[in-house]
Amino acid sequence: MSKADSDEIWKALADPTRRAILDLLRDGAKQTTEIVQQFPQLSRFGVMKHLEVLRASKLVNTRSEGRVRINSLNAAPLRDAVERWIGKYEGFWANTMLRIRDDAESTAVAKSKPKKKRRTP
Questions:
Q1: Secondary structure (DSSP) of 20-63
Q2: CATH class for the region spanning 3-74
Q3: 108 or 3: whose pLDDT is higher?
């Protein structure tokens, strides 16, 4: 994956509306009209601009069937971005989570042990 491709993906993912469109497409291909209807606060033109950014990043594929445009999710670039940028830190996160779990478990064990009462003479 080139730097330009990676930049396009992160640009696409930076916007909450574009992430919501990707969430819609995760459930299956949708006509552009169906997507527009899910965002009543936006104009058709606004949704089309978001779709264009998603197409430029290759996260969305669009095909035409007559006058209808069908949009579908292409998760491959997203997977590449995750492997390239996030995968590098996976080991660090796993080790950190294990340490947190171990600390929490040892604290829980220490708190569950009954405390000995002192006898007063």
A1: HHHHHHHTS-EEHHHHHHT-TTS-HHHHHHHHHHHHHTTSEEEE
A2: mainly alpha
A3: 108
